[in-house]
Amino acid sequence: MSTTIKNPVHAVKEFGLRTRAGVRSNTCHPTKGYETLLPDGWRNSKYEILADDKHSVTIGDTTYYRIRALRRIERPFGLPPVEPGDLGGYVALTAGYPLSNEGNCWIADEAFVSGYISDDAQITGHAHVGYPSKVIGQSLISDFAQVIDGAEVTSSMVTDYAQVVGRNFEGLDKDLIFDRRQTAVANHSWVSGRARVSDGALVIRFSRVSGSAVVAGHVQLRKGAIVTGGVMLVSERGFTDLSGEAIDEPMNMWGFPTTVLLRANDDWAHSAKAFTPEEYGSVLPYWKSGYPRVREAAQEIADIYGVKLEVGDAGLGAYASSFDKEKGYPRNVQTSPVTGIEHLERPSEDEYEEFIDNLILRREAIRDKRLQVLARESGESTSDGEEHGD
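Predicted structure:
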């Protein structure tokens, strides 16, 4: 399956055709019509906060105030520069001033931020960065994406409807928490589509999570790893490390995730190949190394950032799958016109009958295996009893 994802730079430019990222304020002079606030270090401040009712929005118990540029700001990702007087997005003064005066970071459009933004990070569209999350480095949070609950994004992209959700440790017994690692996306990685990264997962070094995939818990993706489609990769305890590997599965014909990988034991899985055995709760019978899509996807990210993809930035490439990708899908893939989610088309009658026959054979094989184990255990128990009687 080819992982086709919208280029965030193109998406931002399309959005700019509808509404300019920095909107020039045509309101009255700040000292004559409304109250303004200047962040710390105001003498060199690049923005001011419009604190009047016209430029504020209250959501629940939090009030957000619109910002306005005081000087020109050059921005990465092909975004138009911000000019003095341009209106930006909204900030909440939950714990000080969210937007740093250092670097070219900016909050634009209808974005809402109560977390911390610094360096060259760009928050655009209708994105939301919640307290105490951090977005630093040359990062892009755009469209309707969310970075919330303490998650950290460093020099990476979160676009479309994707979510990066942190872990709130406040009030929890630290002795009961297996791993206090915070959810993070870093080192030129990309979370897009309707994907979700949460519960302490790490997505680093040119890795990608997209589609409707969920990556959560004690999981790490690195060196160009890909999790996409209708995949749930969740580990409650045992560490899972995907390095330069891909798990790419569409939704099944019933609209459910094709692959659900739940790991609650203490074993460490250093490769997606570990999920081919049945004891890990999922069967991905096809495994092959040298999958070119891994490096291709990493190169796409490198091109967006304008950096050179080094040898160690993307693994050799491998995939674990429910089908042989070289032979194509066992059935055609369809895309929902409502959600945009890919799924396998419904099986034909012959395919369904074959599925039922295989299911019956598999159940019989499992039953026979259990009977053999019981018989062996029973024989060992009898042997032990005879020795004890002697």
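Summary: The CA atoms of residues 73 and 196 lie 31 Å apart.
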